[in-house]
Description:
Order of helices and strands: EHEHEHHEHEHHEEEEEHEEHHHEEHHH
Distance between the termini: 83 Å
Strand content: 15-25%
Bound molecules: arginine
Structural class: alpha/beta
Number of strands: 14
Amino acid sequence: MKIAVAYSGGLDTSVMVKWLMEKYNAEIITVTGNLGQRKELVGVEEKAKRTGASKAYLKDLTEEFVEGYVFPALKASALYEKSYPMATSLGRPLLAKLLVDVGLMEGVDAVAHGCTGKGNDQVRFEVSVSALAPHLKVLAPLREWEFKSREEEIAYAKKHGIPVAATVASPYSIDENIWGTSIECGVLEDPMVEPPADAFQRTVAPENAPDTPEIVTIEFEHGVPTGLNGETLDSVSLLHRLNEIGGAHGVGRIDLVENRLVGIKSREIYEAPAATILHFAHTELERLTLDRAVFHMKTQLAAEYATLVYNGLWFSPLRQALDGFVNETQKNVSGTVKVKLFKGSTIIAGRSSPHSLYSPDLATYSKEDQFDHTASEGFIKIFGLPVKTYHQVNSSSRPVPVNGRQKRSPRPVLS
Ligand code: ARG
């Protein structure tokens, strides 16, 4: 038996390598994807091999992640439950794809992941694998193995000579990539407790942020960012830079009690400086460039898009269909947005676009006004006619019933 394991180098997946070798007498190939997290992945292959893997793959997927997963979600304005930019949710399908690619190349019998049995990530991994390689068996050791605590895993690791990091374990469960950091567990499980300072990984507390605001100027082309402060940048550099700038101003902290797909509410802290700034700026540009009906419809579909991604349905026909709609809407979402960052907040400081639908001639209250005021009178009469009719028939000021019989209401008149 040959198994490809989604491997991070952490305790769970390291123990998993040995556990699968023992249980299935299997040959293990580890697969690690870099999604632009700041933690160095150097040495991860050696660690995998020292743990018993016959082969270890490490692939930098940052650019593919940003352009193929993050930007579509940005264009769709996809924020789960109006808040979470979904760094983790967007990363899983790509990691599953890498696992499948390697698995097929190596001719494995099964793939395995290190997700627990009560989270969303198991769903995202397994649904993605089933979409990309329906015949591949998926193993989820954490759902079935005997270890009840971190201590038990450490004991197992020591017994089997698995290198365990000497550093004090974080009391939190942390998942990070270029689009954001997800932090949960420990004291964060009490939604009444304000997150302690040590929970945050990449942002300063807003109260400790600089006393002077900083303005960032972001260039968009067809809904995706292409430049920062006048400089054209590749997508990955732009995100890294915006994460640094935003993090220094305490921007992008999100404290969310959210609804997991598996039915439980959980409390998670997110840090997503670049995602927060880009979603904010992108929506401001859409306010300027999108037709009203398109903007309204797109706002509704944004929630659908986010829920679908959160629920692990990235590789679904609905996501592709929604991307078709979204891409059509982004044709003219090009231009410049200025965002002021100040002590944790993003403030709009200006927007412009060659496709701006904002017409000064129509909007102005000065003598340059081109709007036909007289046209409004007839428009309002007809626009308000159904409401007027309703109230003429049903209002409390209409004649009261006489002898139990209702007097006929006056007919609505168009005047
Ligand atoms: N709740 C988030 C999601 O479902 C993040 C899950 C992973 N979080 C973590 N701290 N390991 O996308």
